[in-house]
């Protein structure tokens, strides 16, 4: 059986989800672009269309967005986008408070918080959507990660960051690390959950191996826009195989 949608693919579209990728030019490492492709493909399998939009530093922020997604970046990339991010902070905060689903990976996750103080002492202010702060160190946290989430089951991915993130009381961890480090080298927390935001250190990219996270974001976007979500039948056997394989990898 071909993985993907197992039902009739000729049905008319149930609607269109506008996905905005934040800063793909400067914040898009370790295959994070794959997350956008997964959302687009799963939307198709569920019977919806995706419209892919991009916002880079200096662009005008689009009027209507249903789902936001952004990836990781070098410290230098984070410096490049910081001003633009600040100028859109109020709007992004309003979208988040309104329940817009968002996926923020690694470098963008850090900047959704209060600040990232890099290992060389540069202070990059964040937009404070998430009650977190990040401190760079000399040690890089690198390797495969498995983390247990009540909401999404085991979450699989790959981390590579010098920033160590600490959660405040305003957010909850996405998952508890069972292999690897996650947010920092001390507390076993990986990522953060708040409103309809999923934030994570995990690349890989994250969504191909974690379809439950992808479908959470899709369901929130579609429900907000159309009142309800009618999932298609999706065969996730390949994703399951990838998860099983990832689970056996050494750190
Ligand atoms: N530059 C940040 C760090 O090293 C984020 C890295 C990343 O996005 N992978 O912590």
TrEMBL record:
<dbReference type="GO" id="GO:0004359">
    <property type="term" value="F:glutaminase activity"/>
</dbReference>
<dbReference type="InterPro" id="IPR043702">
    <property type="entry name" value="Lipid_II_synth_GatD"/>
</dbReference>
<feature type="active site" description="Nucleophile">
    <location>
        <position position="106"/>
    </location>
</feature>
<keyword id="KW-0378">Hydrolase</keyword>
<keyword id="KW-0961">Cell wall biogenesis/degradation</keyword>
<keyword id="KW-0573">Peptidoglycan synthesis</keyword>
<dbReference type="InterPro" id="IPR011698">
    <property type="entry name" value="GATase_3"/>
</dbReference>
<keyword id="KW-0133">Cell shape</keyword>
<dbReference type="InterPro" id="IPR029062">
    <property type="entry name" value="Class_I_gatase-like"/>
</dbReference>
<dbReference type="GO" id="GO:0009236">
    <property type="term" value="P:cobalamin biosynthetic process"/>
</dbReference>
<feature type="binding site">
    <location>
        <position position="140"/>
    </location>
    <ligand>
        <name>substrate</name>
    </ligand>
</feature>
<comment type="similarity">
    <text>Belongs to the CobB/CobQ family. GatD subfamily.</text>
</comment>
<dbReference type="GO" id="GO:0009252">
    <property type="term" value="P:peptidoglycan biosynthetic process"/>
</dbReference>
<comment type="function">
    <text>The lipid II isoglutaminyl synthase complex catalyzes the formation of alpha-D-isoglutamine in the cell wall lipid II stem peptide. The GatD subunit catalyzes the hydrolysis of glutamine to glutamate and ammonia. The resulting ammonia molecule is channeled to the active site of MurT.</text>
</comment>
<feature type="active site">
    <location>
        <position position="203"/>
    </location>
</feature>
<comment type="subunit">
    <text>Forms a heterodimer with MurT.</text>
</comment>
<comment type="pathway">
    <text>Cell wall biogenesis; peptidoglycan biosynthesis.</text>
</comment>
<dbReference type="GO" id="GO:0071555">
    <property type="term" value="P:cell wall organization"/>
</dbReference>
<dbReference type="InterPro" id="IPR033949">
    <property type="entry name" value="CobQ_GATase1"/>
</dbReference>
<dbReference type="GO" id="GO:0140282">
    <property type="term" value="F:carbon-nitrogen ligase activity on lipid II"/>
</dbReference>
<keyword id="KW-0436">Ligase</keyword>
<keyword id="KW-0315">Glutamine amidotransferase</keyword>
<dbReference type="GO" id="GO:0008360">
    <property type="term" value="P:regulation of cell shape"/>
</dbReference>
<feature type="domain" description="CobB/CobQ-like glutamine amidotransferase">
    <location>
        <begin position="19"/>
        <end position="210"/>
    </location>
</feature>
<protein>
    <recommendedName>
        <fullName>Lipid II isoglutaminyl synthase (glutamine-hydrolyzing) subunit GatD</fullName>
        <ecNumber>6.3.5.13</ecNumber>
        <ecNumber>3.5.1.2</ecNumber>
    </recommendedName>
</protein>
<dbReference type="Pfam" id="PF07685">
    <property type="entry name" value="GATase_3"/>
</dbReference>
């Amino acid at each position: 059986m071909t993985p993907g949608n197992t039902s009739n693919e000729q049905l008319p579209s149930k609607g269109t989800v506008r996905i905005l990728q934040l800063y793909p030019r400067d914040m898009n490492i370790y295959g994070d672009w794959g997350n956008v492709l997964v959302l687009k493909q799963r939307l198709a399998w569920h019977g919806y269309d995706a419209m892919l939009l991009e916002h880079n530093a200096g662009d005008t922020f689009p009027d209507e967005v249903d789902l936001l997604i952004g990836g990781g970046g070098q410290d230098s990339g984070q410096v490049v986008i910081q001003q633009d991010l600040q100028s859109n902070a109020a709007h992004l905060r309003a979208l988040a408070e309104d329940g817009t689903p968002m996926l923020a990976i690694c470098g963008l996750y850090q900047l959704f918080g209060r600040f990232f103080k890099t290992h060389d002492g540069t202070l990059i202010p964040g937009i404070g959507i998430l009650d977190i702060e990040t401190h760079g160190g000399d040690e890089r946290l690198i390797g495969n990660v498995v983390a247990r989430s009540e909401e999404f089951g085991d979450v699989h991915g790959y981390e590579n960051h010098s920033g160590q993130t600490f959660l405040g009381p305003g957010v909850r961890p996405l998952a508890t690390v069972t292999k690897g480090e996650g947010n920092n080298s001390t507390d076993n927390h990986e990522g953060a959950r708040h409103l309809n935001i999923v934030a994570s250190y995990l690349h890989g990219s994250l969504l191909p191996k974690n379809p439950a996270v992808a479908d959470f974001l899709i369901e929130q976007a579609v429900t907000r826009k159309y009142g309800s979500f009618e999932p298609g039948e999706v065969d996730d056997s390949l994703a399951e195989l990838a998860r099983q394989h990832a689970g056996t990898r050494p750190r």
